[in-house]
Amino acid sequence: MSRTFAYVRVSTPEQNFENQIKEIEAAGFTIETHRIITDVVSGSMPTLRRIGFTRLLEKIEHKDILVVTKLDRLGRDAIDVSSTVTKLEQIGIKVYCLALGGVDLTSSAGKMTMGVINAIAEFERDLLIERTQSGLARAKSQGKALGRPQILLNSQRQQVIEQLQLGKTISAIARNFNTSRQTIMRVRNTISQ
Fold first, then answer.
1. Residue 162 falls within a domain, yes or no?
2. Which of 59, 70, 100, 147 has its CA 20 to 30 A from that of 176?
3. Of the residues 2, 11, 82, 192, which is catalytic?
């Protein structure tokens, strides 16, 4: 016989779980108190790194049901939600999301819904990449320097090369220029190219 669990999450300790629990009960789900799993963690934390969700995975079994109020309770973005739902489906868990009309995300209709959500997320990601590339191209055409500013001036880089050729150690040169060994090694690597 299947058991029903609820996963409720808030971002800060000042918030409470009460509204999510009431919403789940209002949707007709009766869940025993010990099967309501709570998490106080930012939505930016991947689902599988959350303490409460890890506890849920230890308790939930094949043919059980998991109820959440919204997709963002399950993951930080569409990809995280999708991989979480896939993981739960692989162990035979049905996942109901109230915000999507109570659809089981592991059913055919739920998979289609997740597919649409993933397609939209991918579209948004592609638009972001296009805007970023367009902005970088515009900045470059305007002569703006892109990337991290150089730590060493060209004259200092030449001095580093000279000191390397004289056989000074990377550590000594780094101390001399008040920079990291990695910076000196990057200059050294340009010599051998």
1. yes
2. 147
3. 11
